[in-house]
Design brief:
The protein has 291 residues and is an alpha/beta fold. It has one domain: Aldolase class I (TIM Barrel), CATH 3.20.20. The protein is built from twelve helices and eight strands. β4, α4 and β5 form a beta-alpha-beta unit. Belongs to the DapA family.
């Protein structure tokens, strides 16, 4: 369980100008993140533009990532969707050898009931031996995984070990922290509120901004795990404007812009996503230089 304490990064997927996967850029990114002191990497979460990759491409990215990481840090695979049968088939076919867990977002667009969400995750949990991290992100899915549903899943399935919580709803978060099994992990899924979430018991973050700035983020999260909130607050404050700019024109456009100016990889995205505007790019460059 300690594998998922600390800083995780939901990696972007670098692309070439023609839209093909940039594997050299992906290698550079992995080394950048490991050198930055992160505890684990999430390959092909929503930040990785997984919705725009086909099955063959996803397999290539997962295999390449595992090869480059070579057991140096914990690895998590993002496998989710709103067709439960299809997600279950992907999970069954997934090569679990080099991965430590699966991160799976709640079904988007369909807006299932809480019972539907429960049954969706039940089917996934029964299809894989890997630990599962739930992902609650209502801003993208259109529905919320309630605290009660999360607790029910945590109690019913031993391989559902945690949740990436990105609802921004502290009433839900408070209920979850009060009622969850002791060993169940709550992980911040929203960079701006990592500090207050960890103050209330979250064990770390699965971050977007960590793509560009893994080192200061990792230091801040470790300080929080050590209960040194005063020192962590200073780093948190220094990251506020950078974090805002990462999302002002959508994710992962902001992160890719910063990574381009750090010479890690390019800023190409797949439609319907596009790079940030020239005005936002200039602001991101200025903030990136500060670090």
């Amino acid at each position: 369980m300690n594998k998922f304490y600390g800083t995780g990064v939901a990696m972007v997927t670098p692309f070439q100008a023609d839209g093909q996967i940039d594997f050299e850029g992906l290698k550079n990114l992995i080394e950048h993140l490991i050198d930055g002191g992160v505890q684990y990497l999430v390959s092909l979460g929503t930040t990785g533009e997984s919705a725009t990759l086909n099955a063959s491409e996803r397999k290539q990215v997962w295999e390449f990532t595992a090869k480059i990481v070579n057991k140096r840090v914990t690895l998590v695979a993002g496998i989710g969707g709103n067709n439960t049968h299809e997600v279950v088939e992907q999970v069954k076919e997934f090569d679990v050898a080099d991965y430590d867990a699966i991160l799976s977002s709640s079904p988007h667009y369909n807006k299932p009931t809480q019972e539907g969400i429960y049954q969706h995750y039940k089917a996934i949990a029964q299809a894989t031996p890997l630990p599962i991290i739930l992902y609650n992100v209502p801003s993208r899915t259109g529905s919320t995984v309630s605290a009660a549903t999360t607790v029910r899943l945590a109690r019913d399935f031993k391989n559902i070990i945690g949740i990436k919580e990105a609802s921004g709803n502290f009433d839900l978060f408070n209920q979850l922290m009060r009622d969850k099994p002791e060993e169940f992990l709550v992980i911040s899924g929203d960079d701006p509120v990592t500090l207050p979430m960890m103050a209330l018991g979250a064990v770390g973050v699965i971050s977007v901004i960590g793509n560009a700035l893994p080192k200061p983020l990792s230091v801040m999260v470790q300080l929080l795990l050590n209960n040194d909130y005063k020192a962590a607050q200073k780093i948190h404050s220094s990251l506020i404007e950078f974090t805002r700019l990462m999302f002002v024109e959508g994710n992962p456009a902001g992160a890719k812009c910063s990574l381009k100016h750090l010479s890690v990889c390019g800023d190409h995205l797949r439609l319907p996503l596009v790079p940030v505007s020239a005005a936002t790019e200039e602001l991101i460059i200025q903030e990136t230089k500060k670090f």
